[in-house]
Amino acid sequence: MEFRYKALEISPSKSVNRKLVVWRPIIPVYLFNNKKIIGYEAIMDSGADFNIFHSEIADILGINYKKGHKRRLFGLSSQKIKGYEHEVEIKIQGFGKYKTKIIFSNQIPVNSFGVLGNIGFFNHYNVNFKYNEKLISINLASKYLN
Predict the structure, then answer these.
(1) Neighbours of 119 (CB within 10 A)
(2) How many domains does the chain contain in total?
(3) How does DSSP assign the chain, residue by residue?
(4) For the chain, which has fewer Cβ within 10 Å, the N-terminal or C-terminal residue?
């Protein structure tokens, strides 16, 4: 399955009035819990260990996110982020649903994209980033092929 990179307009800093266009590997995903479903955009981040979504997504899915396994996350800064791990079903367009672990946190920006990381996404798929062509190719990892 192929997806196109998404163009985003950003400001380099608050003091600069001009905008830049950056290209990000963002794809649509669907999250399921019981009979609830939400479509959301997520960025594929091979530097992220886990799948991470804002806690409001858990609320929409009827998940009391604070009842999950507590996790501490670390990123580019030394600031720790607290999240809670839950098992939910996820679907990537063109592929079937599967259960995976997602960490929900209220300490990330509300309007941020979800994050697809190594455990729960990249360990299920072979991903080829073709930045110059602005294309992403996703195939099931061989251990998941029938």
Answers:
(1) 14
(2) 1
(3) -EEEPEEEEE-S-TT----EEEEE-EEEEEEEETTEEEEEEEEE-TT-SBEEEEHHHHHHTT--GGGSEEEEEE-SSS-EEEEEEEEEEEEETTS--EEEEEEEESSS-TTPPEEE-TBTTTTTEEEEEEGGGTEEEEEE-GGG--
(4) C
In a domain, 124, yes or no: yes
Please report, for the domain that includes residue 129, its CATH number: 2.40.70.10
| Domain range for 96 | 26-144
Answer whether 26's CB lies under 8 Å from 43's CB: yes
Instruction: Confirm if 4 and 44 have CB atoms less than 8 A apart.
Output: no
123: left (phi over 0), alpha (psi -120 to 50) or beta: alpha
pTM, two decimals, is 0.89
